């Protein structure tokens, strides 16, 4: 399957200090907490059109969206470069969750109805509800070591496919199998390191690539 | 494809009854509050999808950005294969060996085989090691 979009998100267990300067200042001057919670400053969103990249930094999360992902190395490189730059400016707090969502697409030569039939035959047991259905979608939570993955896939037509992407790919098929894998690791206040992030991004994409191959071989099995 | 709750990005905040008292800026009820049957689709875990959701962020758009990525930091220079780039090697596109390289490899293999035959190198198996330890010598079979 073709990898068309990747989102990497760092969710922080405490807000970035950048967004709560008054609380920080009060705490450092008085060594006490601010009597009333302040509304954190608004987040920051930067869209880089040439690289089809969006960077979102808000009090609780730091996210990168890549709409151009020619290979895993390119993706890891850009994610690391962006997080390194952000971390140089403002130290990223400890993490509560690391997530990597990737979108995969495989063109189908079948019509949409025919592809739905393939799904019904290969994925589900033949019941009267399944027989009557005109569209299907599949969702599982899988585990991979310490990580988990929300895996969702199904047949899609061009109009639905187009709505899935933040940066519209140059060419999308009329009918396709769409796979959405959210690979994630939850933790309690873990300090982030470069090595940890690099390994996570790479292993997440490798895992998703493996799942995409498994899915396609399942759908093509016995054709 | 029917999208389940997990497939929906977190940023999709569906207002079931727009512009009503039930959907004022002070109170936004999610879809599941209005359609409890949707609860059956919820996973055991709390829904916490990877998303790009930002809460009312300040938005900027630019054309380009200069990032110190490995592709720019590393350069591959192979006189035999000037067309090969760092990205090619990283994505597993290894250059095809030239005739000269194939010949050198073949000579190296021949030499290795010759050395192997001359020295009578045999694989060191567990049985051999055990025997050597028991007999206290490095005897050959």
SSE blueprint:
The complex is a heterodimer of chains A (223) and B (141).
Chain A: E1 2-12, H1 21-30, E2 44-48, E3 53-58, E4 61-66, H2 72-89, E5 95-107, H3 112-123, H4 128-132, E6 138-144, E7 147-157, H5 158-162, E8 175-190, H6 194-220
Antiparallel strand pairs in A: 1-4, 1-5, 2-3, 3-4, 5-8, 6-7, 7-8
Helix pairs in contact in A: 2-6
Chain B: H1 31-34, E1 58-62, H2 70-73, H3 86-90, H4 99-119, H5 126-135
Describe the structure.
The complex is a heterodimer of chains A (223) and B (141). By secondary structure, chain A is of the alpha+beta class. In chain A, 35% of the residues lie in helices and 34% in strands. Chain A has six helices and eight strands. Chain A has an eight-stranded antiparallel sheet with strand order 2-3-4-1-5-8-7-6. In chain A, strand 3 and strand 4 (61-66) form a beta hairpin. In chain A, helix 2 runs antiparallel to helix 6 (194-220). The model of chain B is unreliable at 10-29 and 35-44 (pLDDT under 50). In chain B, 31% of the residues lie in helices and 4% in strands. Chain B has helices at residues 31-34, 70-73, 86-90, 99-119, 126-135, and one strand at residues 58-62. The longest helix of chain B is centred in the last third of the chain and has 21 residues, at 99-119. Chain B has 141 residues and is mainly alpha-helical. The A-B interface holds A 7-9, 11, 42-51, 53-54, 56-59, 61, 63, 65, 70-71, 73-74, 77-78, 81-82, 85, 97, 99-101, 135-137, 139, 141, 150, 152-156, 160, 166, 178, 180, 182-184, 186 and B 1-4, 6-7, 43, 45, 48-65, 67-71, 87, 90-91. Strand 2 (44-48) of chain A pairs parallel with strand 1 (58-62) of chain B.
